[in-house]
User: Which sequence fits this backbone?
C-alpha cells in the first residue's frame, strides 16, 4: 500500500517537473530568442518571440480570471469550464458508443476467424480517413435521419465522430486480450464442456482486462479529439472546440486567450483518461501487476 | 470395472497435408477402476495426445475411446474426469476458493454447496488457510495442489494429469508425489498420469506404460508391485529399483531401435 502511495507521489512529481521544464523552455526562448524570429535564406526557421506570438505563461493563466469580453461579468475561466463540460458530455457519449461497437467487433472477430480476416483490414483503413472530411458527411447523413419522433440532434454528429476514433483502439486491444487466454486454460474450459459464451465470460474477458484498460484509455482521449475536431469542422456551438476557434480569431488583440481554451481541451482529455485509470485501479486491485505492452 | 478403454486408436494430425504428423498408431489400453497408470516415453511420443484423446479434447482418427463405459465425448459432457496440466492454470482474478469452485459453478451448483465442497477440497490438499488468497500469492507447489483440488472438486471417478509436477523442483516434486498418492487413496480416484520421469512413474503407478517415439505405440507395460502403501522408504526398496530398471530398459530398447532405424533410412 505504502509503495503504491510512494509510486503515485513519484509519478506526480515527475509530471510537475516535466510541466515546469516546458514552461522554463518556453520562457527562456522568449527571453533570449530574436523578437522577429530567425530567418535563414528568407525561410523562417525560428518562431517570433513577441508577446503576440508567444505570450508569457503567467499571462495565459491570469487571462482565466478576467472577463471573457469587455464589460461581461463572465470570466474566461467560467466560459472554458462551461465549454469543457459540454464537450465532456459529448465525449463520454462518443466513448460509450465507441466502446460498445469496439467490444462487439472484437467479440465477433474472436468468434469468427472469417470476420476477423474480412473486417480487420477495413478497420485499419477506416482510421486513415481524415476526420475533417468525414465530419460534414456525418452531419448531413444524420440530418436526413428521422425515425418516428427521433430527430438527429446536431451534437450527436460530434459524438459519433468521437466514437469513430474511439472504437478502433478498443476493438484492437480487446481482440488481443480475448486471444490472450493460455492454451491450458482453454483446454480446461473444454474439459468442463463449457460453451463458447461461458468461456468468453468466465475466461476470455477476465484475461483480456489488462489489455483492455490501455485500449480504453486510448479510446477515451481519442473520443475527446474526435469531438473537439468535429465541433470545429461542423461549427457546433457550446463546446471547447468552438471556443478554441473563437479565441484564436482574437489572437491579434488578445494572444493569451486562445491558450486558455487549449489547456481546457488538454484537461478534458486528461480527465477522460484519468477516469479510465481509476476504473482500472479498481478492477485490477486483486491482480498481480504485470505489464502488458 | 473399466475406467478407460482405448481400442485400436490412431491419431494423425493435418491428415493429407504436407505437414501431416502421425502421432499415434494402433494404440490399445485398458485402465481398471482405482488403477494408477503412467504413460512414459520420449518427447513427441504422443503420450499427451493419448491423454487428450481420453479427455476428448482431441478426436481419434481411427478406433474408439471409452471412458466410464461411455464414448469419450459423452464422458466429457458429463464431466466424468478432472484434469491437471503442467501449468497449474489457475485463474489469477479468482481467489483460491473460487478457483476450486469453477467446475462446480459450471455444473450449476449453488453458492452454499460450492463453498462447502471447496472447503472440503482445501482440507484434502492441506491448504485450508489459503481460501481467500489469490493464486499469484502461492508457491508453484501450492498452486499445483490447488489445481488438483479443482480437478477433483466435482468428485470425478477419473483424474487425467499431464506432467503436473514437471515445472516443480525435485524436493517439491517428491513431496507432491506423496501428496497425490495420499489424495488418490482417500478419494479412490483412477489416475492416468503423463510424465517423462522414470522414478516418478514407478513411485506413483500400479502400471507404467512405455511408449515409442513417433508414431506413438505402446511397446511395454511394467507392473509395479510395490503395494498400495507407499512412503519415502519405498524409494529405497529393491522392487522400486527393479521396476525402474524394467522401465528404463523398455525406453532404452526403444531408443536403440529408433536410432538403428534412423541410420537404416539414410
Assistant:
Amino acid at each position: 500500500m505504502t509503495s503504491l502511495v510512494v509510486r503515485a507521489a513519484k509519478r506526480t512529481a515527475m509530471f510537475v517537473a516535466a510541466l515546469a521544464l516546458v514552461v522554463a523552455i518556453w520562457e527562456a526562448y522568449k527571453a533570449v530568442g530574436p523578437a522577429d524570429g530567425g530567418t535563414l535564406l528568407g525561410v523562417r526557421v525560428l518562431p517570433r518571440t513577441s508577446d503576440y506570438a508567444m505570450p508569457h505563461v503567467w499571462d495565459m493563466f491570469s487571462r482565466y480570471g478576467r472577463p471573457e469580453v469587455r464589460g461581461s461579468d463572465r470570466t474566461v475561466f467560467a466560459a472554458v469550464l462551461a465549454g469543457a463540460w459540454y464537450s465532456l458530455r459529448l465525449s463520454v457519449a462518443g466513448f460509450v458508443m465507441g466502446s460498445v461497437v469496439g467490444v462487439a467487433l472484437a467479440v465477433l472477430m474472436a468468434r469468427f476467424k472469417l470476420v476477423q480476416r474480412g473486417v480487420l483490414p477495413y478497420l485499419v483503413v477506416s482510421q486513415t480517413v481524415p476526420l475533417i472530411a468525414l465530419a460534414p458527411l456525418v452531419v448531413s447523413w444524420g440530418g436526413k435521419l428521422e425515425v418516428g419522433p427521433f430527430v438527429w440532434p446536431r451534437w450527436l454528429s460530434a459524438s459519433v465522430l468521437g466514437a469513430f476514433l474511439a472504437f478502433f483502439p478498443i476493438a484492437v486491444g480487446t481482440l488481443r486480450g480475448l486471444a490472450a487466454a493460455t492454451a491450458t486454460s482453454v483446454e480446461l474450459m473444454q474439459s468442463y464442456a463449457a460453451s463458447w459464451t461461458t468461456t468468453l465470460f468466465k475466461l476470455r474477458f477476465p484475461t483480456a482486462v489488462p489489455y483492455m484498460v490501455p485500449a480504453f484509455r486510448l479510446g477515451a482521449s481519442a473520443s475527446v479529439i474526435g469531438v473537439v475536431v468535429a465541433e470545429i469542422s461542423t461549427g457546433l456551438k457550446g463546446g471547447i472546440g468552438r471556443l478554441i476557434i473563437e479565441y484564436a480569431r482574437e489572437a491579434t488583440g488578445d494572444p493569451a486567450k486562445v491558450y486558455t481554451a487549449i489547456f481546457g481541451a488538454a484537461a478534458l482529455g486528461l480527465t477522460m483518461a484519468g477516469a479510465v485509470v481509476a476504473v482500472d485501479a479498481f478492477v485490477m486491485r486483486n491482480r498481480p501487476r504485470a505489464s502488458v505492452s | 470395472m473399466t475406467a478407460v478403454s482405448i481400442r485400436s486408436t490412431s491419431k494423425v494430425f493435418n491428415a493429407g497435408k504436407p505437414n501431416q504428423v502421425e502421432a499415434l498408431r494402433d494404440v490399445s489400453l485398458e485402465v481398471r477402476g482405482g488403477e494408477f497408470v503412467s504413460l512414459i516415453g520420449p518427447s513427441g511420443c504422443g503420450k499427451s495426445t493419448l491423454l487428450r484423446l481420453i479427455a476428448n479434447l482431441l478426436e481419434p482418427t481411427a478406433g474408439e475411446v471409452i471412458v466410464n463405459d461411455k464414448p469419450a465425448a459423452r464422458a466429457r459432457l458429463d464431466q466424468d474426469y478432472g484434469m491437471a496440466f503442467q501449468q497449474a492454470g489457475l485463474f489469477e482474478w479468482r481467489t483460491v476458493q473460487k478457483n476450486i469452485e469453477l467446475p462446480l459453478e459450471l455444473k450449476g451448483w449453488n453458492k452454499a454447496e460450492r463453498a462447502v465442497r471447496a472447503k472440503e477440497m482445501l482440507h484434502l490438499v492441506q491448504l485450508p488457510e489459503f481460501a481467500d488468497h489469490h493464486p499469484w500469492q502461492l508457491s508453484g507447489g501450492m498452486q499445483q495442489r490447488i489445481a488438483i483440488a479443482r480437478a477433483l472438486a466435482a468428485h470425478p471417478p477419473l483424474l487425467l494429469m499431464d506432467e503436473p509436477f514437471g515445472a516443480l523442483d525435485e524436493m517439491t516434486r517428491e513431496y507432491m508425489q506423496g501428496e497425490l498418492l495420499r489424495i488418490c487413496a482417500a478419494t479412490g480416484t483412477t489416475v492416468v498420469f503423463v510424465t517423462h520421469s522414470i522414478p516418478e512413474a514407478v513411485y506413483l503407478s500400479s502400471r507404467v506404460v512405455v511408449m515409442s517415439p513417433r508414431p506413438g505405440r505402446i511397446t511395454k507395460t511394467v507392473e509395479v508391485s510395490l503395494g498400495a502403501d507407499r512412503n519415502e522408504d519405498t524409494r529405497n526398496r529393491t522392487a522400486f529399483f527393479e521396476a525402474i530398471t524394467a522401465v528404463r530398459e523398455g525406453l532404452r530398447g526403444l531408443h536403440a531401435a529408433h536410432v538403428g532405424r534412423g541410420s537404416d533410412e539414410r
